[in-house]
Amino acid sequence: MNNILEKYFNPLAIQLAFQRVKCWPDKMTKDLGGIYAFNSNLEINCKNLSNKIISESYKPQRGFKFYVPKPSKTLRTKTVLVVEDAIVFQAIANVISQNNYDRLNQNSQFVYGSVLNQEVKKGTDILKDEKSNFFFFKFWQSLHEKYSDSIIQAIEVDKVKYKFETDITGFFDSIPHYNLLLTLSSQFDVEDEILDILGNCLNLWSGTKVGPTPGVGIPQGPPPSFLLANLLLHQLDEILIDSGYFYLRYMDDITIFSFEENELNNALLIIDKYTKSNGLSINSKKTIIKEIKEGEEDETITKLKRKRFFNSYNSEDDDFIISVETKDSPNKSNKIHKNLAKLSQQDNSNELGHITTLSKPKEIIAFWKSQIIDVEKELPSLFVNKTSEPLKLLDSVDDIDAIRLSTAYGVALRELKLLKYDITANSFLLKYWLFFYEKFFWRADKLGYTLMNYSNSKELKTKMIEMLNSNISNYEWSVYHILQNLSLTQNFNQKELRQFYFKKLKTEDSNLVKISLYRLLYKHCKTQQLRATLQNQLNKENSQYLKMIIADFNKFHNNENINLDDFLNSIGL
């Protein structure tokens, strides 16, 4: 038996990796159907996967790829690994992080992106804990707050004179496997057997939907990729920290402050040489060295504080993430209160912290009603023309404002409904929410939450369909969210389903969009004939992942008209 493979991939190591995969925070980059299936017979599946890897019969799969739009309107490739591949990737990351935790943790005052949870030090012993925390990284919210606090401290308190900023061009997509594997071997003592497995996996997982890019790139989405990225930059961290720089890094975003401009010029050369020696390059368009003049950085500080505000509504609450897998319904109200309490401790001027001091239902209702009134007052003020069409935003308004108001309004409505208070969304505001949704389409996942309060709105339905026929149709991720929103908020007759949505399904190239179309069609179809037509179409699909997602959808949405075994057989699974 190979002792190295046994160390990384014994059944307990596989079980730990699986528990961590369940806790990956991004639902859209998790093989949820595979997770349910693997969990259904966990002990046997862990042993089988362990034996497969140790006997060297394990073969990785390509994974499911989709594109997510950036604010620049370019695309980022996200990857969903099938559950076995996700477990293998996480198992490798677990051992590397356990062996190197103390060394990596030394830089915790300088490096803020994807910082390891201290529980990784326990290895598989964590499985014995009565209440285990399987999250691989610390929650991003508190880390980003520390990062922004450090920037605010440097500018407002320390009164630094100069600032340097840069990032790495196409970071994840550009990482050369040779340099990464050499770093893992020479700096982190990763064994050759593991490097061979990882190298084979990365060759298959790299690239875009078009195809892999052998030798270059790591998949975006799986948390172990963030660990690998940090490991590649770790030596750069040590060089700059040991040189005494006021250095901050959040993944590939690097900021350095100084009282002397020449010191930052030297730092630029260090970073440029390091990235070039590792097959990377810094982004010249985003690289600046500038003098900080009094009052000039007020906008930067304001933006950081606004981000902190809306992050309080969107943190990675552990109960909430785990509930996605178990189908439980966590106490979301407590989650909101907990986040707001945390926020109020950091910013005494924030009135939202007041909610944590209230206990009487009448007081809590009054608080959330006041939040709704505030949003209803502020939202129109963000527009140059509050009533006439077409709407136009003030120049100072950005996507952070949109998310802040949309989320605050949606949360307040939900909290009042949980308290059995009779309230509906203000129909006058819908045109503003839809404007935000269309303008900031790369934020569709965040901005769609409030729209869920406008069920059966003809205005919403008409506008969403218009968006499907606009330039937004070029962005599969945004189209996916539009269709999800339509499916959850609107009703459809059989004519609409056949003449628009089924026809769109027949001509659609994106498997991500097809997932949302199949969900919409299955959710709303009422006739056996259309259901049979859908089943025949699904059987013709080439993507096994797509088929599994739709099978999972039918299973967990209790579609009483479908026998799951018959359904799986009919689509070739």
How would you describe what is shown here?
With 573 residues, the chain is mostly helical. It has a domain at 3-292. It contains 25 helices and 6 strands. It has helices at residues 3-9, 11-22, 32-40, 42-54, 83-105, 140-157, 171-174, 177-188, 192-205, 223-242, 261-277, 298-311, 318-326, 332-346, 361-381, 399-418, 430-439, 444-451, 458-468, 476-489, 494-507, 511-524, 528-540, 544-556, 564-570; strands at 64-69, 75-80, 162-166, 246-250, 253-258, 288-291. The chain has a 4-stranded antiparallel sheet, with helices on both faces. A hairpin with a 2-residue loop joins strand 4 (246-250) and strand 5 (253-258). Helix 16 packs parallel to helix 18 (444-451). The chain is globular. The two termini are 34 Å apart. 34% of the residues are buried. The model is unreliable at 315-350 (pLDDT under 50).
Round the Cα radius of gyration to an integer and report it. Answer: 25 Å
Instruction: Classify the helix fraction into a percent range.
Output: 55-70%
Helix/strand/pairing class, anyone? mainly alpha
Strand order of the largest sheet: 4-5-3-6
Tally the beta strands. 6
- The percent range for strand residues is 5-15%
Poorly predicted regions: 315-350
The best one-word shape is globular
Whole-number mean pLDDT: 88
Number of helices: 25
Termini distance? 34 Å
The main β sheet shows up as: 4 strands, antiparallel
Properties at a glance:
four-stranded antiparallel beta sheet, two-stranded antiparallel ribbon, globular, single chain, 6% strand, 573 residues, mainly alpha
Concise synopsis of the structure shown:
58% of the residues lie in helices and 6% in strands. The protein is built from 25 helices and 6 strands.
